[in-house]
Amino acid sequence: MESFVSSESSKKKQQIVIDEEKGLVFSSEKDLLDHFSADIKSLERSFLEWRSQSDFNEEESLKYENNLTDTLDEPDEVWIDDETLPGKTLTIFLKEFESEEEAEDRGLFHVAVTYMTGDIPSFIYLHFPTNDLHLVEKYQVGKLIYDRFIAQAPEGAIEGDALIEEDQLALGLYGAMLKVRVESDIPIERFIEYAQYREASIEDADEIWRSNDSMGNVLVSFVKDLADEGEKGVWYIVVTVEDAPSNSHALLFSFPTNDEGLVERYRHGENLQAEEVIQESSH
Prior knowledge:
The chain is of the alpha+beta class. Helix content is about 30%, strand content about 30%.
């Protein structure tokens, strides 16, 4: 009886379990690779087609093998791709590393294309280092489900804000705004619900105010009353910093408010006409 238990235990240990629920349990590494071989070859063909001649060759790539662990554990982005392999879902992990290359234009990125079991990458179809941002962009496909910069940004930050990039001017001004908000104002977690009004608030602002802060930055605030949008008693404010030579503006942060007292804090300095302002996307 003991011999039987020992034999069964040994057999189970030799199995490679990828996704037991879907029957992806293999008796050997060969069986595992045979099962995924067609998908691996398809992904490798695309990779080889897209890779530039100036990218890392196979020998150079070997010294970056260890970057795979950090890419999976602490990615910059995670994408869900349901299109590349029909009927199958790929999860793509991307991470940028500090490059040791002297040339400033040679970055260092790592890409891992995986099969996920729950929230665990249980099989790696393909992974590689690259110095080519254009190649990385080929793998930014499908749905972005994790962005480290957004995840680590202050609550209420919206994609496109300089807050996402941890800009110190934006962080300081945003923090100051949060301190003077009244408790009855729109909850921070609901800021994203009003993000649709940001572009209109810039392009069709009711008021535009320019002022200088104590550090010499030229701040321009766009204020829009959302009453015509069906949001009576709500304003949307976009705060930008002006580049004097070009008279263009980089987006720092934006937010909705139902507190007219807070709106008044942004009505100071010089009142501008909308046509005087040129907008630029962000930092």
